[in-house]
Amino acid sequence: MIERRLLIVDDDKTVLYAYKRLFKFAGVEVDTAKSLDKAIAAMKKKSYRAVVSDLNLRGETGLEGLEVLQTVKDINEDTKIVLITAYGNLQVRERAAELGIDYYFEKPVPIDNLIKILQTLTN
Amino acid sequence: MVTYMKDKQNPDMGRELNNAGNVAISWPSDARSEINLIEALRKKQAELEKQNRELRETQARLEESRNKFSELYDQAPIGYFSVDKAGRIFEINRTGADMLGDSRDRLVNEYFLDFVAKEFHDTYKIHFTDACASQGKLNCELKLVKKDGTEFYGYLESTPANHPGSNRGSSCRSTISDITQRKLMENALRESKLKNLAILNTIPDIIFIQDKDGVYVDYHARIQTNPTLNPKDFLGKRTRDVLPLSIAVPLDRLLKTTLDTGRIQEYEYSLPFGEYLRHYETRMVRLGENKVLSIVRDITRSKQAEKALQAAHNMLERRVAERTEEIGKINIQLKKEIKQRKRMEKKKEKAQQMETIGQLASGVAHEVRNPLNSIQAIIAVLNQELRGHHEFQNCSKHINDQVERLSRLMRDLLELGKQNKKEFMKIESIPVLCKSAVNLWKQAQKEPTHHVVLNHAERAEKAVLMGDMGKLQQVFINLLDNASQHSPEGSEITLEILNPAKKNIRIRVIDRGTGIKAENLPHIFEPFFTKRHTGTGLGLSIVTNIIENHSGTIKVRNNEPLPGCTIEISLPVVEIKK
Q1: Which of B204, B211, B487, B535 has the most CB atoms at less than 10 Å from its CB?
Q2: How confident is the model at residue B330 (pLDDT cuts 50, 70, 90)?
């Protein structure tokens, strides 16, 4: 059984800080990672109910988020994945859909919605 | 022989007369006193002395007279000389000597022939012989040579003369005058005459001379070029008698003008000549006081050449005109093409511009969205932390509003940068599209502020186009937004679909608001032009972008009559379903 644990992946530390506190309020445990490598390392250590990742993690391609999600799928099929992005690119959405993401948000993300969705996904 | 006669006064005296009839002697007839004899002798002596004196006076007078004549002879304006039968000069006056160029003394006994130019020797010899033999005066003209070789012309008049000690008729007395001047002038005149004649003979024109009444008094024409010209036909006749009235009348007028003004008059006319029509040109000039000379030239050939040239010129002009017209048409065509090309280029340029702007806008939007996201997240955290804090809640609301505003702007910016996605293009009915747009808009309104009316013309029912429905709906939503923000609450907004044309259909959004100032009309589609508080300023730019991506056009104008304005969109139709 996967614990009600959430992994937030974003290169922006404000986001990591805010989301951690917000989700804690909602009673969800949150781990954070600010790069692809860190995310992969974290996922190898623990299992998560859901992973929320920004698309652009300031790596080489700006599409590291997709790799994160791919890794998630590789590690655990049941883990839900939510993609957040500042870009409304169709190709990205298509790729994400191929990967089988569970939800997709464009920034700025409406927080209430995010919490609601995650609650739904993790229950 | 002595002649005696009785003295009439003194019958006693007898007189002895000499040959001359003068008293030689007279003595008393009886032997009176010797005193009477001495008296008589003394008287005689006195008479003789008187006679002597008279003789001497007479001699003197004679001498004087002789001298006078001698002078006259010598200094006569012509030369006098006499030539003996051998041809030698034996007498010559000063003038003559001067003429021959030597002194009188030296000239005597010279042969006159030495002073005659060689070519005239025969002439002189004949003249001399004839003169000697004739009774009266003979004359001839000679070229003479002075002593120093100078030549001159002389006019000789000779008569036979007596040479003391010779037979009558074998010598000759001549006068000689210098006619060099005259001779030279004569030569010049003759040469001039010859030259004139030569010139005249080369002129192919006919020259007429008429008097002041128009009667032909003389003419000149080369036979070769005018074989049929017969002077009998016109000499002595008037112009009217020779030429048709239509020509004679103006010619006579011209004649009068020439005589009056002294200026050269010109005239062109035509005469039938056999079966052809020939053209002539005449020039009249005044000759003396009351005659006119005209030169008539046949200009038929040049006239024909003129006509041919004119015809060729006309044809050329016609060709040029045709070609010009052709070129004009081509030019118009070219201009059209150039215009079209320019329009295409402009469109392309604009599209590229839009793409660049779009990319920039997208870039900006994306970059801004990230911090916006962070801000929102932190606000959410603060909201949770300070849930009970009233004042904070107010502040946080304000912050959220601003973030929302920025979000909307970023969304619109991104919208501007988007191009058409082929995947979203599909065929849709226009009335259906408009209806759904209106509905969406109504739903988005918090409360109904305006009355929206949707009209479509009869044939618009079946009109269909190809496009991105989402985007096109956005267009009408934005236009309705724009209309409602510019018109008073409760007023009507009309969405009208007009009858489709062959290739496109027009849709109008009509509001009854304030209208737009004329100077602003061309600018309202520019980004951030309309500064409304609630909008992003990009609504109409987005509309323009979408419409242009669908190969349509958009126009705006104020309503006539006011109030309000109309925005008209034209979009290409795919087909009109039957």
Answers
A1: B487
A2: very high
The structure tokens listed for B524 are: 């309202």
User: d(Cα B444, Cα B474) in Å, to the nearest integer?
Assistant: 12
Instruction: Check CB contact of A90 with chain B, cutoff 8 Å.
Output: yes
Structural tokens at position B129 = 């012989």
| Three-class DSSP category at B206 | strand
Residue B8, helix vs strand vs coil? coil
Element (H or E) spanning A61, and its range?
none
Pairing of strands B451-456, B492-497: parallel
Q: What does the pLDDT average to over B97-121?
A: 90
Q: Would you say residue B420 has pLDDT above 70? A: no
Q: Does A11 touch chain B (CB under 8 A)?
A: no
Of B26-40, B363-377, B425-439, the least confident: B26-40
Lookup: tokens for B416: 């501007």
Residues 6+ apart with CB under 8 A from B215: B236, B237, B238
Contact across the interface for B373 and A107, Cβ inside 8 Å: yes
Judged on CB neighbours under 10 Å (0-12, 13-18, 19+), B437 is buried
Contacts of A17 in chain B (CB under 8 A): 378, 381
**Tokens 């089988």, located at residue:** A100
Asked whether the CA dihedral B510, B512, B518, B520 is positive or negative, the reply is negative
Kindly report the nearest CA distance between residue A22 and chain B, in angstroms: 6
Q: Which residues pair with residue B568 across a beta bridge?
A: B508, B555
The pLDDT of residue B9 is: 57
**pLDDT tens digits, B151-161:** 999 999 998 87
| Residue pair B427/B464 in contact by the 8 Å Cβ criterion | yes
Sorted by sequence, the CB contacts under 8 Å of residue B459 that are 6+ apart come out as B499, B500, B576
DSSP class of B550: T
Sheet holding A29-33, edge to edge: A29-33, A5-9, A50-54, A80-85, A103-106
Is residue A25 less than 8 Å (CB to CB) from chain B?
Answer: yes
pLDDT for the residue numbered B13: 54
- How many Å separate Cα B327 from the centre of its chain? 31
Q: Is A86 on the interface with B (CB under 8 A)?
A: yes
pLDDT of B414: 80
Write the residue in A18, A25, A106 that is nearest to B378 by C-beta: A18
Mean confidence (pLDDT) of chain A: 84
Per-residue confidence band for B313, with pLDDT thresholds at 50, 70 and 90: very high
Short-list B405, B401, B379, CA closest to B392: B379
Q: What are the start-end ranges of the H helices in B291-428?
A: 300-385, 390-417
Show Cβ contacts of residue B428 under 8 Å, excluding neighbours closer than 6 positions: B464, B465, B466, B467, B469, B472
Q: State the pLDDT at residue B163.
A: 55
Q: At what angle do helices A13-25 and B300-385 cross, to 10 degrees?
A: 40
